[in-house]
């Protein structure tokens, strides 16, 4: 009897041990497979392109206290980039600009093409002579760019559901009547997002608030995630760290611990990048210039009004900016000052000549 019990025990122990061994090796196999998948899965490269910048303000603010398009889209782009760094695992974020600098359209395209990016997002604000018009627009190159159309569709949906914004639909080159350079020449899936109209006072106000900018960024984030998942791209959206970390710690589960680790790693990556940005911002120099004129065609330096200024020893500089929706602009500047006061003194003098609409513009150099 004793022998039988002993034998039974031995059999049981063997079974238990071997099943444990099987469980362990399955877990190890799963772990090594996931490691393997992780090591061969390339991150999804996303280019964030804040439209305009520097010399080119884009759509100008309609009133004091508001900001120009170049400032609003940069703020949204930065918020979006932060969200992606903090919460979107499996991606690499590339900015065309992080600061208030001027970049030509071909430079933006070159950044995206050289990075061999998977997704290109260009952010803009709209304008319409009819002030009642508001809502978002998604622009793609043409309908043969099927992936771009899908991305635009998911972005459109996210603007409706996440941000509860009015959407005006998806537009291609035919709808617009002209191609957009950044979409035409970038080689990847791409959408130019018009986040709203600055010519509509309610939408302008919304886009000037932190909460509005955050909501727009959140919608874009969700649109990108839905698109990536539908395309089978290995991205994972983490919950907002502040909301879930305390809750996860309470339960102390393995899955929870893994999630906390992922959140912490993403936060570290984000903090590191933020520090680098702050260092770069320290060396950035802001200059103030007076824009005296802007035109679709070049103005001769010997023009009567220009000549009068030059006779008073003002040096006029011509800067050509290119804009996807409005085409080339020839801009004329006077002065390059370190302080707003110095630039204001120049503006006061210049307005005495025939430049009543001259204004001060500032940007980084
Ligand atoms: Zn624009």
Low-confidence stretches: 1-39
How much of the residues is beta strand, in percent?
Answer: 15-25%
> Biggest sheet: strands, sense, closure?
6 strands, mixed
State the total count of DSSP E strands.
Answer: 12
Which series of helices and strands comes N to C?
HEHEEHEEHEHHEHHEHHEHEEHE
Could you give a quick summary of the protein structure above?
By secondary structure, the chain is an alpha/beta fold. It is built from twelve helices and twelve strands.
Distinctive features:
single chain, 365 residues, alpha/beta, Aminopeptidase, Alpha-Beta Plaits, 2 domains, four-stranded antiparallel sheet, 50% helix, disordered N terminus, binds zinc ion
Descriptive report:
This protein is an alpha/beta fold. The chain folds into two domains: 44-237, Aminopeptidase (3-Layer(aba) Sandwich), CATH 3.40.630; 286-364, Alpha-Beta Plaits (2-Layer Sandwich), CATH 3.30.70. It has twelve helices and twelve strands. It has a six-stranded mixed β-sheet, with helices on both faces. A four-stranded antiparallel β-sheet has the order 10-11-9-12, covered by helices on one side. Strands 2-8 form a two-stranded antiparallel ribbon. Strand 5 (136-139), helix 4 (146-161) and strand 6 (167-171) form a beta-alpha-beta unit. Helix 2 (69-87) crosses helix 8 and helix 9 runs antiparallel to helix 10. The termini are far apart. Mean pLDDT is 88; it is low at 1-39. The structure holds zinc ion. Residues 51-52, 58, 69, 124, 325 line the site of zinc ion.
């Amino acid at each position: 009897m004793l022998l039988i019990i002993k034998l039974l025990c031995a059999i049981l122990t063997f079974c238990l041990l071997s099943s444990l061994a099987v469980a362990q090796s399955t877990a190890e196999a799963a772990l090594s497979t996931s490691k393997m998948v992780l090591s061969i899965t390339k991150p999804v490269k996303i280019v964030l392109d804040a439209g305009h910048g520097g010399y080119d303000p884009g759509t100008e603010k309609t009133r004091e206290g508001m900001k120009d398009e170049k400032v609003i889209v940069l703020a949204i782009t930065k918020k979006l980039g932060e969200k992606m760094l903090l919460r979107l695992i499996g991606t690499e974020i590339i900015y065309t600009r992080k600061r208030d600098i001027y970049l030509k359209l071909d430079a933006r395209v070159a950044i995206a093409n050289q990075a061999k990016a998977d997704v290109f997002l260009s952010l803009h604000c709209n304008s319409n002579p009819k002030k009642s018009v508001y809502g978002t627009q998604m622009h793609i190159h043409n309908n043969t760019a099927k992936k771009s159309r899908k991305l635009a569709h998911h972005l459109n949906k996210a603007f409706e559901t996440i941000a509860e914004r009015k959407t005006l639909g998806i537009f291609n080159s035919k709808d617009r009547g002209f191609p957009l350079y950044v979409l035409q020449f970038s080689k990847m899936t791409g959408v130019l997002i018009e986040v709203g109209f600055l010519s509509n006072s309610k939408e302008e106000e919304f886009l000037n608030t932190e909460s509005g900018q955050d909501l727009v960024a959140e919608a874009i984030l969700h649109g990108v995630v839905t698109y990536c998942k539908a395309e089978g791209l290995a991205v994972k959206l983490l919950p907002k760290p502040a909301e879930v970390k305390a809750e996860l710690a309470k339960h102390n589960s393995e899955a929870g611990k893994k999630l906390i680790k992922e959140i912490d790693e993403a936060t570290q990556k984000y903090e590191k990048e933020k520090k680098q940005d702050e260092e770069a911002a320290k060396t950035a120099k802001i200059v103030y210039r007076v824009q005296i004129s802007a035109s679709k065609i070049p103005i001769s330096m010997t023009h009567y009004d220009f000549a009068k200024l030059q006779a008073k020893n003002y040096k006029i500089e011509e800067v050509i900016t290119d804009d996807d929706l409005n085409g080339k602009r020839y801009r004329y500047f006077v002065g390059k000052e370190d302080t707003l006061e110095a630039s204001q003194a120049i503006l006061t003098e210049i307005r005495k000549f025939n430049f009543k609409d001259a204004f001060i513009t500032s940007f980084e150099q």
